[in-house]
Amino acid sequence: MSQKVLITAKVNPWLLETLTAKGFEPVYQPAITTEEVMALLPEITGLIVTTRLKVDKAMLDSGHRLKWIGRLGSGMELIDVAYAESKGITCVSSPDGNCDAVGEQALGMLLCLRNNILKSNLELRKGIWEREGNRGWELNGKTVGIIGFGHTGQAFTKKLQGFDVKILANDKYKSGFDTDVVKQASLEEIYAQADVVSLHLPLTKETHHLANTQFFNAFAKPVYFLNTSRGKVVDTTALVAALDAGKLAGAGLDVFENEKMATFTPAEKTQFDYLLRLPNVVLTPHIAGYSHEASIKMPQYVLEKLGILPNSRI
Ligand SMILES: O=C(O)[C@H](O)COP(=O)(O)O
């Protein structure tokens, strides 16, 4: 009997074809609900997930034959990995599959902000030809602070090469990564020197609301603030206040505390509408990692880590 792999999100057809070629039976249910997953799970060997669904203890308990979970993406906050592993279920993620896309998006938002591309474009659409009010700032010679030096922090660093910036990176759990390109730094050094700060952190109890009022007040000068990691790492109320007070030069946000617009509370709607009105804020709907290339690299790396495909990187 072929082993069934339940795919719970929209994926590149490459994954379905590859699983079939490797003798698996893909069960493709991109709109599946939690209840439906739990009903199907007893006959499933492999589970492919994104942030669409929470993989908690109850779900894992229904996976009697479940051998592995493949996360198409980086963040593992919705999977109870410790419990899965205690049941002998292997969990793999694929931050290496979408980090280039995220690094490019962080750079794109930064360039967009520093040269008033969004603002001047919106003005032109209204027939306003404004040059002086849109005079930009060069990245050349500036200091970029990177908080979190995992896959996406490193990818952003790579994309910044060629801009002649000084890069300071902070990672609570890493050391010894000083190179000619990047200098390992304390948060205090970043606060004191940065012109740009970019978050590349997973969402954990420790990082929740790490960017709060104290954080925004700590910078010596108004920085451009980028977040392509997780919305809940930022206290949105503090962010809005910092923008309002001119403590930030601008913000590029791909992620938000609540990403389901239909469920916004009145306060969340007010904050979001305020951000939308600011010309020095660029917002995107959590698409930083959503490149066509990532849609193949993520499942490819997941299958490689599970030993279903040979490792293409050695
Ligand atoms: O964690 C990630 O890799 C990205 O945020 C994308 O996750 P998602 O597409 O599963 O929401």
Overall helicity: 25-40%
Within CATH, the superfamily of the largest domain carries the name NAD(P)-binding Rossmann-like Domain
* Cα radius of gyration in angstroms: 21 Å
How many strand elements?
12
- Which class best fits the helix and strand makeup? alpha/beta
CATH architecture of the largest domain: 3-Layer(aba) Sandwich
Mean pLDDT over all positions: 97
Give the number of domains: 2
**Strand arrangement, largest sheet?**
8-7-6-9-10-11-12
Strand content: 15-25%
CATH domain class of the largest domain: Alpha Beta
The main sheet comes to: 7 strands, parallel
**Mass-distribution shape:** globular
What report would you give on this structure?
The two termini are 32 Å apart. The strands form two sheets. A seven-stranded parallel β-sheet has the order 8-7-6-9-10-11-12, with helices on both faces. A five-stranded parallel β-sheet has the order 2-1-3-4-5. The longest helix has 20 residues, at 95-114. The radius of gyration is 21 Å and the shape is globular. It folds into two domains: 3-95 and 292-305, 3-Layer(aba) Sandwich (Rossmann fold); 97-283, NAD(P)-binding Rossmann-like Domain (Rossmann fold, 3-Layer(aba) Sandwich). It contains twelve helices and twelve strands. With 314 residues, it is α/β, with parallel strands linked by helices. The site of 3-phosphoglyceric acid (3PG) has 7 residues, from loops. 3-phosphoglyceric acid binds next to loops.
